[in-house]
Design brief:
The protein is an alpha+beta fold. Helix content is 35%, strand content 15%. The protein has two domains: 4-79, Beta-grasp domain (Ubiquitin-like (UB roll)); 88-159, Orthogonal Bundle (DNA polymerase, domain 1). Strand 1 and strand 2 form a beta hairpin. The chain is globular. It starts with a strand and ends with a helix. Residues 167-172 have low confidence and may be disordered. The structure holds FE2/S2 (inorganic) cluster (2 copies). Residues 40-43, 45-50, 60, 62 line the site of one FE2/S2 (inorganic) cluster.
Length: 172
């Protein structure tokens, strides 16, 4: 089948990738861009391993055609942090034991990052709801939810100005 050149904006960088019309964004990211942090589990939209952000919202890269993603801001796990500069979610998953084999972890972290970008203080029930499309066969989920709560706390603290009045002062 003839290939088309598609320009994908991934983590702020432009990638030109030759794709067939039926190729998914997951294929284009992994095979065309070399960004293998996005995992493919079911390839059917049921496991959440392939979650990325499209224009700031979580989306399944196995259900998105590469051609559909042109002109949109794509964020993958590689765009959230790495090396010694971990995203608070990455730090929290490591600290809380929210990752074991790790195959599902990029999907959980990207999905959670999209949640916390829009809802900085989600309840535990809201977190469970937001990750309900992500499957893990190792952890039992409790530590994953713990990790997302920890990261939300850290992000909120980091965003609080140092000179903000404390709660006690506000009541005085
Ligand atoms: S690989 Fe996309 S949802 Fe499973
Ligand atoms: S850590 Fe192994 S599937 Fe989630």
């Amino acid at each position: 089948m003839a290939k088309t050149l598609v320009r994908l904006t991934v983590n702020g960088a432009t990638h030109e990738v030759a794709v067939e019309p039926r190729d998914t964004l997951a294929q284009a990211l992994r095979d065309g861009c070399g960004l293998t942090g996005t995992k493919v589990g079911c390839d059917l939209g049921t496991c959440g391993c392939c979650a990325v952000m499209l224009d700031g919202r979580a989306a399944l890269a196995c259900l998105t055609l590469a051609l559909e993603a042109e002109g949109r801001a794509i964020t993958t796990i590689e765009g959230l942090g790495g090396g010694t500069n971990l995203h608070p979610l990455q730090e929290a998953f490591a600290t809380c034991g929210g990752s074991q084999c790790g195959y599902c972890t990029p999907g959980f972290i990207v999905t959670s990052a999209a949640l916390l970008d829009h809802e900085p203080s989600p309840s535990r029930e809201r977190i469970k709801d937001a990750i309900s499309g992500n499957l893990c066969r190792c952890t039992g989920y409790i530590k994953i939810v713990d990790a997302i709560e920890r990261a939300a706390d850290r992000i909120r603290v980091a965003k609080t100005p140092a000179d903000a009045p404390s709660r006690e002062l506000q009541h005085n």
